[in-house]
Design a protein that fits this description.
Pfam families: DUF3052. This protein is an alpha/beta fold. The chain has 4 helices and 5 strands.
């Protein structure tokens, strides 16, 4: 049975498309990240989040990103290196009005530079939003 306080946490992991046994890497960790979101993701995938030194093929990369953290496009290029072909990157940024807020257009521009496309944005906690980025899809096959 899921306790009332746990239901919201599991919901966050599900919003992010986290499934049991997925390999999830976390980049950009700092003391301001939401530990409840991290715990929910670990609980859902069944293992600890991997750091930047991991050599696995990743199903999901979580990139905590704040204004002033550097060059987002460069970090996205680094993030997609170990990503599975059908993997996704979630850029987690402070919400509007919070310190470190990032304009959605900045995320979209950096994603495009890195060869990614934003598909959706979700609220992951009181202070953080997540933008889902996926790789460019191959052109659909045409029937002859």
């Amino acid at each position: 049975m899921v306790a009332a306080g746990d239901a919201g946490k599991i919901g966050v992991a599900e919003k992010l498309g986290i499934e049991p046994d997925m390999v999830v890497q976390e980049l950009g960790w700092d003391e301001d990240v939401d530990d409840e979101v991290r715990a929910a993701i670990e609980e859902r995938c069944g293992s600890e989040l991997l750091d930047e030194d991991a050599q696995d093929v990743m199903d999901v990369v979580l990139l905590w990103w704040r204004e002033g953290d550097g060059d987002l496009a460069d970090d996205l290029v680094d993030a997609i290196g170990p990503l599975a072909d059908d993997g996704v990157v979630w850029v987690l940024t402070p919400k509007t009005g919070r310190s470190g807020y990032v304009e959605p257009s900045d995320i979209a521009d950096a994603a495009k530079t890195a060869g990614l496309s934003p598909t959706s944005t979700v609220s992951v906690s009181e202070d953080w939003s997540g933008t889902r980025l996926v790789g460019a899809k191959a052109k659909p096959k045409t029937r002859r």
